[in-house]
Amino acid sequence: MPHKDLLDIxxxxxxxxxxxxxxxxxxxxxxxxxxxxxxxxKGKSVLMLFYEASTRTHSSFxxxxxxxxxxxxxxxxxxxSITKGESVxxxxxxxxxxxxxxxxxxxxxxxxxxxxxxxxxxxxxxxGDGAHAHPTQALLDAFTxxxxxxxxxxxxxxxxxxxLHSRVARSTSLILQKLGVEVAxxxxxxxxxxxxxxxxxxTDYTAAMAWAPDFVYLLRVQMxxxxxxxxxxxxxYHRLYGVTEARLxxxxxxxxxxxxxxxxNRGVELCDAVMDYERTLxxxxxxxxxxxxxxxxxxxxxxxxxxx
Length: 308
Ligand code: CP
What we know:
Layout: H1 14-30, E1 45-50, H2 56-67, E2 71-75, H3 88-97, E3 102-107, H4 112-119, E4 123-129, H5 135-148, E5 156-160, H6 167-178, E6 182-186, E7 200-202, H7 205-210, E8 215-218, H8 234-241, H9 245-254, E9 257-259, H10 282-299
Parallel strand pairs: 1-2, 1-3, 3-4, 5-6, 5-8, 6-7, 8-9
The structure holds phosphoric acid mono(formamide)ester.
């Protein structure tokens, strides 16, 4: 059964995840055609409600919606009545009156997209809320891994860095576990909480690499969410956990893949040479983000119609 909203990965079962990933394949094939557009959502409207900055998620949702022939409304939070103190509830009720079909929400507050979903008959898609969830990032990560290993069960993904503040780590770990992938987390002890007992936890890079991962998934160090100092310095972080030139040589010898949700901090999570490594999948992740977001928009069923 299709859902009205996509708020997290926990609410998707295995068959729904498989369906969305399978449905993304023909959408990606569209990208090689001269006309990259289908009329699937003609007459529907998609409203982008981003309270936090975004490059990849925002632009790929916009491209995805346009390739499905939907109308896209970019709600400019900085120029809206939110700056005059209008609440989220009032904003959403105003948008509801405009009968938009989809609302894509990013907010620093965990759970806010879920609250909005209760206020509107539009389909709400969580584009990242606080440290809680980023479900379409997880779907695009799973899709990218499945392009290399169509049956990824038994493969190992090592997620490195600021797990504590990362909605990507939470959502991507969960989807990979649902697909039978083994997941481990590596980083400074202060940034690697024990999320669940099925996820191995490392604080030492050498020990983590001895676990023999197939993918090294680097996370951005989120300085903007860190109100206290979790490690001595960025230089120290790079030395202990970053993919340095020497570590890249080992990764290349072992044929491992590198992923990162972006934006990257060069010189912190990775050195410049990582971007030219042939098994770095960062640009594939960005391209795949459009295909999976098309699949999500196509699958969700807004609760209201314009005939209501
Ligand atoms: N991966 C990701 O969410 O990137 P943006 O913040 O640029 O959207």
